[in-house]
Each structure stands twice: as C-alpha cells, then as structure tokens.
Specification:
With 171 residues, the protein is mainly alpha-helical. The chain is 49% helix and 5% strand. It folds into two domains: 138 residues, CRISPR-associated endonuclease Cas1, C-terminal domain (Four Helix Bundle (Hemerythrin (Met), subunit A)); 32 residues, no CATH class. Strands 1-2 form a two-stranded antiparallel sheet. It starts with a helix and ends in an 11-residue tail after the last strand. About 3% of the residues have low confidence.
Length: 171
C-alpha cells in the first residue's frame, strides 16, 4: 500500500508524508488523509450493504479479525487501489480547496456507479470463498414477482398493491 500511495501522490501531484488518520483529530488531519478516509468509509458502507443483503456476516474476517466489520474490511481491500485511493488523490490533486470531504463522497458515488461496483461485489466474494455463483445472490425481485401484487385490507381482503397475508396464509 505504501508504494501505491506514493505512486498516486506522484501521479496527481499531491504531497505525501504517509498514511495518518486519527478520528479524534479530524480537523488537523491533512487533506489527502482525510480524503482517503472519506473514500474508504464510502466503500465500507457499500460493501457492508452488499454483504448483509446476502446473509454474509460482516464480522467474520479472514485478514482483518476481531472487529465488527472485519469481513467488510477484507472485501473492501479488493477495491481500494482501483476505486477509492485514486479518487481521493484525484480530488485533492485537482487543487480545489472547497469541501474536499463532500467532493470525495460525490466522486466515490460516481465511481461506484461507473464501475458497477455493487454488482461486482457478490461475484467477487463468491470467487474469493470458492463458492458456486448460485449459492448466494442478491434477490432479484423482478424474476419471480407477479405482474400485479396485492395488499391485505381488514375489510375487503385483497386490494391492489401487495399480497394478502390473512389468517389462511399465516403459518
């Protein structure tokens, strides 16, 4: 990682003295370290959402251990050098001083969308764990959803917009 940070610093013309981050001293942290932290926080949120949406435990890590988000950190590390680190250096290297945290978040959002990162996370997790693709996948609501859904109304039974879960449907 050190060499990658140095390389990105040269590429984007950003002064680099090392990775330092202390949450309790956020305001005194240099702009590039803040941007990296913001970008990684965005990535962690996306990875966390992908993992829990498929039933993976975010706590069971392989490289990172003993933290509530160990597996999130493991999977996020697969993307940092391609996604968040370059975004952070690009934002700070642009020379625009206003709102670097906000600009980093927005740039991450755009980069996640451009790279279709959310769609890539689960297949990558499956490959890393040696799983067959059909074992775990995001639920595709469009694949088996009825054309029209119905809601249950206590007076009229089914009404348009959902599914009736009356006494005869409960288990």
């Amino acid at each position: 990682m050190r060499m990658a940070y140095e390389s990105f610093a040269k590429m984007f013309g950003v002064p680099w003295t090392g990775r330092f981050y202390k949450p309790q001293h956020w305001a005194s942290t240099d702009p590039i370290n803040r941007a990296i932290s913001v970008a990684n926080s965005c990535l962690h949120g996306l990875v966390h959402a992908a993992l829990v949406s498929t039933g993976f435990s975010p706590t069971i890590g392989f490289v990172h251990t003993g933290k509530a988000l160990s597996f999130v950190y493991d999977i996020a590390d697969l993307y940092k050098l391609d996604v968040t680190v370059p975004v952070a250096f690009q934002i700070i290297g642009s020379g625009k001083a206003e709102e670097p945290d906000r600009r980093t978040r927005l740039a991450c959002r755009d980069r996640f969308r451009e790279t279709r990162l959310l769609e890539r996370i689960l297949p990558d997790v499956q490959r890393v764990l040696g799983m067959k693709p059909e074992v775990a996948r995001l639920y595709d609501h469009s694949a088996d959803a009825p054309a029209e859904s119905r809601l249950w109304d206590p007076e009229t039974g089914e009404v348009r917009g959902g599914t009736n879960h009356g006494p005869e449907d409960s288990h």
